[in-house]
């Protein structure tokens, strides 16, 4: 409360996706259906990987953690967005706004570095297959996942510590359906040029560098696979790398659009934010699953075992 009083702003007003009641109702039904279908599917992926002994490799361990991170990420902003569709005046407290910023960047950065760990896993599997079991032991995998969470926390806490020092003394309207640094920083009643520059390096440039590094690494792996002897194993490895590249593009493209530019409003901002915070995160594990016959078979076995569906 002291921080809220010192800034002069106790809450932020969210303008939402649209002011038209009919459009809000349509979006509520659309997002609720999407959320109700895809969210349980991601939970099913986690339970399938956890319960099936055939999916005990590091690749599936990372996929389960990716699905968990995406579920957490999509639990930060969409629930409030769905509730706000029923209110004419949409508000969020100062503390709630800061909490949204923290968890969005914490989970988002953790997922970025988890994808880096998945890329390292594919590198070891393809380039050092004889040493794969020892190099990618359970302890190493847990360490990589833990490191991704730690880096995500450090990335996010730095931004929040800096943003809470900024005074907000007047305008409190955010032309969005949630709080993010690119929106909030524009309401500051002080010069924030240096802070914007730091945010660009901490978010925008870091995301761009990770994106390019992942593309280069997967490109090198695909070239190596293409130059090797064609076999079923090689084809499967190449398919897995292609799937990872698709996920990288889906995740990084909106983030690069949002953070690798001046913090100004553009016409496509809200559309990109919806895909970035609601649609794409939940779709990442689904894309991987649809391209992986082993997971689909494991899901069928799990559902048959629990009597949810019948064996064909």
From TrEMBL:
Keyword terms of this UniProt record: Cell membrane, Disulfide bond, G-protein coupled receptor, Membrane, Olfaction, Receptor, Sensory transduction, Transducer, Transmembrane, Transmembrane helix
Provide a Gene Ontology MF annotation, just one: olfactory receptor activity
Localization (cell): Cell membrane; Membrane
Known Pfam families for this protein? 7tm_4
Q: Spell out the Gene3D superfamilies in the cross-references.
A: Rhodopsin 7-helix transmembrane proteins
User: Does Disulfide bond show up as a keyword for this record?
Assistant: yes
- The record places domain G-protein coupled receptors family 1 profile at 41-288
Q: Which InterPro entries match?
A: GPCR_Rhodpsn (IPR000276), GPCR_Rhodpsn_7TM (IPR017452), Olfact_rcpt (IPR000725), Olfactory_Receptors (IPR050427)
Top-rank lineage group of the source organism: Eukaryota
So where does this one cross the membrane? 23-47, 59-78, 98-120, 140-164, 200-225, 237-259, 271-290
Indicate yes or no for the key word Cell membrane.
yes
| GO CC field | plasma membrane
Lipid bilayer topology: Multi-pass membrane protein
User: What does the sequence similarity comment in the record state about its family?
Assistant: Belongs to the G-protein coupled receptor 1 family.
**PANTHER family (UniProt xref):** OLFACTORY RECEPTOR (PTHR48002)
Q: What is this protein called?
A: Olfactory receptor
Q: Which organism is it from?
A: Gopherus evgoodei (Goodes thornscrub tortoise)
Gene name of the encoded protein: LOC115638374
């Amino acid at each position: 409360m002291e921080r809220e009083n010192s800034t002069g702003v106790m809450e932020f007003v969210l303008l939402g996706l649209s002011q038209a009641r009919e459009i809000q109702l349509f979006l509520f039904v659309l997002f609720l259906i999407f959320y109700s279908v895809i969210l349980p599917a991601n939970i099913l992926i986690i339970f399938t990987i956890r319960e099936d002994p055939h999916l005990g490799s590091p690749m599936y361990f990372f996929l389960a953690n990716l699905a968990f991170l995406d579920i957490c990420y999509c639990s930060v902003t969409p629930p409030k967005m769905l509730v706000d569709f029923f209110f004419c005046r949409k508000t969020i407290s100062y503390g709630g706004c800061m909490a949204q910023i923290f968890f969005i960047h914490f989970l988002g950065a953790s997922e970025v570095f988890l994808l880096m760990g998945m890329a390292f896993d594919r590198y070891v599997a393809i380039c050092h297959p004889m040493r794969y079991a020892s190099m990618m032991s359970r302890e190493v995998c847990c360490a990589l996942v833990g490191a991704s969470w730690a880096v995500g926390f450090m990335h996010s806490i730095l931004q929040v510590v800096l943003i809470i020092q900024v005074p907000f003394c007047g305008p409190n309207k955010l032309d969005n359906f949630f709080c993010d640094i690119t929106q909030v920083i524009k309401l500051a009643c002080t010069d924030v040029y240096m802070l914007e520059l730091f945010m660009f390096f901490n978010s925008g440039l870091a995301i761009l560098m990770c994106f390019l590094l992942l593309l280069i690494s997967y490109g090198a792996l695909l070239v190596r696979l293409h130059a090797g002897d064609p076999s079923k194993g090689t084809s499967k490895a190449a398919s897995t790398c292609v799937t990872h590249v698709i996920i990288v593009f889906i995740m990084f493209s909106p983030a690069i659009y949002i953070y690798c530019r001046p913090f100004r409003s553009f016409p496509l901002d809200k559309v990109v934010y919806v895909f970035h915070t609601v649609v794409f995160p939940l779709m990442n594990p689904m894309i991987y699953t649809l391209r992986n016959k082993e997971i689909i078979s494991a899901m069928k076995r799990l559902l048959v075992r629990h009597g949810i569906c019948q064996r064909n």
